[in-house]
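[Meeting: bench + compute handoff]

Bench side (C.D.) handed over the final construct sequence. Compute side (W.E.) agreed to return the predicted structure before the next meeting so the bench team could plan truncations. Sequence as handed over:
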Amino acid sequence: LPHLSLPFPSPLTLLSPPSLPLLSLLQVECGSVVFLVLTFLLSSLFLYFWSQAHNDYNDFDWFKFETLGFWFPWSLVLLVVAAALFTYISLLLVLAVCLLSEGQRLYLHWS
C-alpha cells in the first residue's frame, strides 16, 4: 500500500513531545523544579502566617467592612485559598518527585 500524506498533521504527532535539544530540556526541567520548590515554600509560609494570625481575623474583617461597606468573612476566604494553593502545589511537588525518581520528564501542565 502506498503511503498517503495528509494535508494536516496526524493526531499522534500532535501528542508527541516537542523535539528540543537535550541541554534545553535539562534547563527547562531544572527551572521547573526550582520554580515548584520555591512556590511550595512560599505557599507554605503564607499558609503558616495566615493560620497563625487568627487573632487578627476580626480586625481584618472590620477593615474590609469599613472599606467596602458590607460584612463578609474575608479572613476565612483567604485561609481557604491559602490551603487550596498549598494542597495543589504539594500534589504537584509529589508528582514531580515521583516522575523524577523514575527518570521521566516533567509534564505537569504542558504536553
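W.E. noted at the follow-up: The radius of gyration is 22 Å. C.D. will use this when planning the next construct.
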